[in-house]
């Protein structure tokens, strides 16, 4: 009979891998999905759909994570986790059988993706708690390290799988034809069905649920409403508004952001005064817990949007300059990001195993420092770089992320009483997912702002080199400056952005179609024109993003170092003991944690 702890590790690893693959698989395959649905990705309404397909999954997951963890503490972690597997699988089925076409079908996809996000929240919120319950303290770092590798590794595997599926033809089974875009959603179904059945058959709770506790209805409503408004408002800043390339001037955006902040402020006030809060603020009195979740949030804030920007760098500039067609760049950008995954695969489990013996403080802090330094080194990389250099940087950065993620997760989960592990796991996952969503907004704002201020000049110079002057040169330059978001996402979706701009320009008054001869049009839409035209402005914005990420990561490293001694709450009596010392040294035991109150949470800080 396989030991139960290995059953938990294998099932939660499959769940984390499946849910994280689904989070990124659309980044590569959206062009095929839009074409299959007969949706023009450059219509104004389509851009809103694109934003929701890319970011809606993360918004819903971030909002529900704490709720899912709290439900698990009350009704049973295995039960809530199993329900998450079933809901996620149901979402996969709905996506595959999306009934409509056109814009209606695209919005149906958004809705079904949100169903999947509900299941993913239940999976993410309880994986760490189930592992912490199943594994003894001396093995938790290793187990959580493997689970973290599956989670982050799945994010990159999603890019590769999406690229592979997007490149295959429609599947013909006799008289039945399954379009390629539907295959993208069916890939999760076999794993989801297997994982759901296996979870219901084998997983069970090792600790009794806290059935005497009650849901914090006011806290749930305030938190869900506030975080939803905040994240949706920030997401809509990426949509152009009026004459601006971003949506910061949109009054609805600011209304949502302000209301979100107000509701979250009221939420914190309420949580400090209810008997059984959803968000246990008392846990932040643990220095190991507060430092761990804060540094995890800052790490996600620093790197969450960087993967997407690096992909755009590959797709929009480097790959076309090296002979790859725009249509093929989505797949190859995923391939060229593999060193990031490799670094995480090597150092994630290794650092988790080492943290079981020597504690998390040094390993986690060093990992953050390594990741932060790589961001500063990226400042020196030219836009047409040597891949071995960038591949090496990606490997080192992945290694730094792995060195931090596994020990930090183990330290956070070890620092809290066993009865609060579900809520704690949800709080950690919420802060990580919220940091990632905020990161996408911040990084795109920095890069798009840089493009809006510098793109007209670089495009004008590039057009002048081809002999394109007034009136067409200024028209194209103004379109590029006014639509930097469209240009970025055109490259991201596998389209030649200059071809898109030429289509827009043909309807602008004063456009002289005779000036753009076939020879000039061929040069404008060549592999090299757009990358060389956009590169100066893009790289300036990207360096601002790298600088921001580097500073935030080093701040997170400092907070990680300040975690001090790590306290381990034993399953028997919840007695916290110091574990940062090597295992051969006798641990110092602090006062026992009373089984029914939160007083020990206050004393452990």
The total beta strand count reads: 4
Q: State the end-to-end CA separation.
A: 41 Å
- Quaternary state of this entry equals single chain
The helix count comes to 22
Strand content: under 5%
Instruction: Note the run of SSEs as H and E.
Output: HHHHHEEHHHHHHHHHHHHHHHHEEH
The CATH topology of the largest domain: Growth Hormone, Chain: A
The CATH superfamily of the largest domain is known as: MFS general substrate transporter like domains
Radius of gyration: 25 Å
Report the principal-axis shape: globular
Specify the helix fraction band: over 70%
Contiguous runs where pLDDT drops below 50 for at least 5 residues: 567-605
Record the strand order, biggest sheet. 1-2
């Amino acid at each position: 009979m396989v030991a139960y702890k290995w059953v938990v590790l294998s099932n939660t690893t499959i769940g984390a891998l499946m849910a994280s693959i689904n989070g990124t698989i659309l980044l590569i395959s959206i062009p095929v999905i839009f074409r299959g649905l007969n949706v023009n990705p450059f219509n104004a309404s389509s851009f809103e759909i694109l934003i929701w397909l890319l970011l809606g999954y993360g918004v819903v997951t971030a909002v529900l994570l704490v709720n899912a963890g709290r439900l698990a503490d009350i009704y049973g972690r295995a039960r809530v986790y199993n329900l998450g597997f079933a809901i996620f699988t149901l979402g996969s089925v709905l996506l595959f059988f999306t009934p409509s076409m056109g814009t209606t079908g695209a919005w149906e996809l958004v809705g079904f993706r949100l169903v999947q996000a509900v299941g993913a929240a239940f999976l993410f919120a309880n994986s760490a708690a189930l592992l912490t319950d199943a594994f003894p303290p001396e093995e938790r770092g290793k187990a959580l390290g493997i689970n973290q590798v599956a989670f982050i590794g799945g994010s990159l595997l999603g890019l590769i799988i999406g690229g592979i599926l997007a490149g295959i033809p429609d599947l013909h089974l006799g008289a039945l034809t399954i379009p390629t875009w539907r295959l993208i959603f069916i890939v999760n179904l076999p794993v989801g069905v297997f994982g759901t059945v296996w979870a219901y058959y084998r997983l069970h709770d090792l600790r009794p649920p806290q059935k005497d506790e009650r849901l914090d209805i006011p806290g749930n409503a305030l938190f869900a409403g506030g975080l939803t408004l905040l994240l949706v408002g920030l997401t809509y800043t990426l949509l152009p508004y009026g004459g601006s390339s971003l949506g910061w001037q949109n009054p609805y955006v600011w209304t949502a952001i302000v209301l979100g902040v107000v509701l979250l402020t009221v939420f914190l006030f309420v949580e400090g005064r209810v008997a059984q809060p959803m968000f246990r603020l008392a846990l932040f009195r643990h220095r190991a817990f507060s430092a761990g979740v804060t540094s995890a949030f800052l790490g996600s804030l620093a790197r969450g949007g960087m993967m997407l920007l690096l992909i755009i760098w590959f797709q929009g500039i480097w790959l076309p300059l090296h002979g790859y067609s725009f249509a093929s760049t989505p797949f190859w950008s995923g391939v060229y990001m593999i060193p990031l995954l490799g670094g995480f695969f090597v150092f994630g489990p290794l650092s988790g195993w080492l943290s079981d013996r020597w504690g998390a403080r040094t390993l986690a802090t060093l990992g953050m420092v390594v990741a932060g330094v790589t961001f500063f080194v990226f400042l020196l990389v030219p836009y047409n770089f040597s891949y071995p250099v960038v591949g090496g940087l990606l490997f080192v950065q992945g290694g730094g992320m792995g060195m931090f993620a596994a020990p930090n997760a183990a330290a956070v989960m070890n620092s809290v009483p066993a009865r609060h592990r579900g809520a704690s796991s949800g709080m950690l996952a919420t802060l990580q997912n919220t940091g990632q969503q905020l990161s996408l907004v911040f990084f795109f704002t920095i890069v798009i702002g840089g493009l809006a201020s510098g793109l007209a000049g670089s495009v004008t110079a590039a057009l002048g080199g081809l002999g394109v002057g007034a009136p067409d040169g200024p028209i194209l330059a103004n379109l590029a400056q006014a639509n930097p978001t469209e240009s970025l996402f055109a490259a991201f979706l596998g389209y030649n952005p200059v071809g898109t701009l030429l289509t827009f320009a043909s309807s602008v008054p004063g456009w002289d179609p005779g000036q753009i001869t076939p020879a000039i049009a061929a040069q404008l839409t060549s592999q090299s024109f757009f990358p060389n035209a956009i590169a100066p402005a893009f790289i300036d914005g990207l360096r601002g993003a790298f600088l921001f990420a580097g500073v935030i990561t080093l701040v997170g490293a400092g907070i990680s170092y300040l975690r001090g001694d790590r306290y381990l709450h034993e399953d028997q009596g919840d007695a916290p003991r110091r574990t940062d010392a090597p295992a051969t040294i006798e641990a110092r035991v602090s006062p026992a944690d009373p089984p029914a109150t939160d007083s020990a949470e206050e004393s452990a800080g």
